[in-house]
Specification:
Helices cover about 30% and strands about 30% of the residues. The chain is of the alpha+beta class. Strands 12-13-14-9-15-16 form a 6-stranded mixed sheet, with helices on both faces. Strands 1-6-5-4 form a 4-stranded antiparallel sheet, with no helix packed on it. Strands 8-7-10-11 form a 4-stranded antiparallel sheet. Helix 3 packs across helix 4 and helix 9 runs antiparallel to helix 10. It binds adenosine-5'-triphosphate and magnesium ion. The site of magnesium ion has 4 residues, from helix 1.
Length: about 400
């Protein structure tokens, strides 16, 4: 497949020749919607009647291309304006591991994903969900058993060399040279990318400052703390100003201040046009950084959307009350049951009760009126939107809490 054009470029393409870009199209008023794919399309799926203008979007908001015909009657040679395109595309990735003497592991089970340019997508999933495997496939470290993936239109299976020139990767475990200093590690990466001696040193210094490693820059990395090691590894991923940045659990092991600092750096890079795919088990991180969140479990995406979309997909708000005395819990439960859209929940000390409701304000008013009527004394009452934690639990049935991880070089 030909490389897709970059953002804001105009070019003339032969749509018949590039049918592989489209999966299906639909007409809505004057606008044609085309759905992208990376395999081969059936030509019958692309019917060009006589539109003056087409807009192309994918359902997940991944790509949008406005296609304008140079002439309403010409069959080939259309002018294309690319507004925003998916930079990272994965279709149906399957990957098995065959551990010696142990059963086969299906780490990716048909994972599909689409990350538009200059956005952050978070892969959110529990231990063993397949996050690192997905990152390894997309960064050309391992080959999928089946399925396809492209980075800026380049195929991960066939164009690894080209892809590696435009991506930055920070793996789950810091991959730094223990015997070199922090500065030397970054300088070495610059040299490997042929930045030139002077440019490479300047870039290393900039990144040392950005990641607040000035004091430690001249010490060998083997004496670095886990968090410092992590920061040097993240800095190394940024040496070439990559178009696409893959971060596998970037803030695991960072203290809260460094975590906030890294979030800031990521958001600034995205503002400048970098596309970021990160994996995380921290719901707060996905909530804070990601334009789009793909919840993955057992090797496939089980839900995708913005944080708000995912939250609203599991229902409305929650009303929560906390009782002064657990003796009132049965009465309070009955009240919550009468306004809830699901069964109420109660804490083990029987003093905090909550329930999902469709209309938060009106449910809260009605709970308060009946609580008062029945003389139940409250410490607190309020309304909450579901958290990503709730979404995660509801979708996967697992807890999303991160387990402690040991930072080791691998
Ligand atoms: N090299 C390997 N050999 C055998 N099995 C593997 C290998 N790498 C990963 N797996 C298995 O594949 C599945 C997915 O692992 P992966 O590392 O992609 O998960 P993850 O979502 O990154 O998990 P974590 O949150 O723990 O980092 C797991 O069951 C894991 O045990
Ligand atoms: Mg992992």
């Amino acid at each position: 497949m030909a490389a897709l054009p970059t953002r804001h470029t105009k070019l003339t393409i032969d749509l018949v020749h590039h049918l592989t870009w489209f999966e299906s199209c639909a007409v809505e008023e004057d606008v044609f919607l085309f759905y992208a794919k990376s395999g081969h399309a059936d030509s019958s799926q692309l019917r060009i009647s006589n539109p003056r203008q087409w807009a192309w979007e994918t359902a997940g908001g991944s790509s949008a291309i406005t296609v304008v015909l140079t002439s309403p009657f010409c069959k080939v040679g259309y002018l294309v304006y690319v507004q925003r395109m998916a930079f990272i595309e994965a279709h149906n990735l399957v990957k098995h591991y065959v551990p010696r003497g142990a059963p086969l592991v299906r780490a990716l089970d048909g994972l599909s994903l689409s990350v538009p340019q200059a956005t952050v997508t978070a892969l959110l999933g529990p231990n063993g969900a397949g996050k690192t495997t997905a990152v390894k496939v997309l960064t050309t470290l391992i080959k999928p058993d089946s399925g396809t993936a492209t980075i800026n239109g380049m195929d991960v299976a066939r164009q690894g060399d080209q892809i590696r020139r435009v991506i930055g990767v920070s793996g789950q475990y810091a991959a730094v040279d223990e015997n070199l200093t922090g500065f030397e590690n970054l300088d070495m990466v610059g040299r490997l990318y042929h930045l030139g001696a002077k440019t490479s040193r300047i870039r290393a210094k900039e990144l040392i400052d950005l990641f607040e490693l000035t004091e430690a820059q001249n010490r060998p990395v083997k004496g670095f703390s886990g968090g410092m090691r992590r920061r040097i590894d993240l800095a190394a991923a940024l040496v070439i100003n990559p178009q696409v940045l893959f971060l596998d659990e970037p803030t695991t092991g960072l203290d809260p201040r460094s975590r906030l600092g890294l979030w800031d750096i990521i958001l600034r890079l995205v503002d400048q046009g970098t596309t970021v795919l990160l994996t995380t088990q921290y719901l707060e991180e996905a909530d804070r950084l990601a334009d789009d969140i793909a919840v993955i479990d057992q090797g496939k995406v089980i839900a995708q959307g913005t944080s708000d979309e995912l939250k609203s997909s599991i229902g409305g708000q929650r009303v929560e009350i906390s009782l002064v005395s657990d003796a009132d819990s049965d009465q309070a439960l009955a009240i919550l049951r009468s306004v809830g859209s699901a069964a109420p929940e109660i804490s083990s000390d029987r003093r905090t009760l909550s329930v999902t409701v469709d209309n938060g304000p009106s449910a809260l008013r009605s709970v308060m009126a009946r609580v008062e009527e029945q003389g139940i004394r409250l410490h607190d009452a309020g309304m909450q939107r579901p958290t990503l934690d709730d979404v995660f639990l509801r979708l996967t049935g697992h807890s999303a809490s991160p387990t402690a991880k040991v930072e080791t070089a691998s």
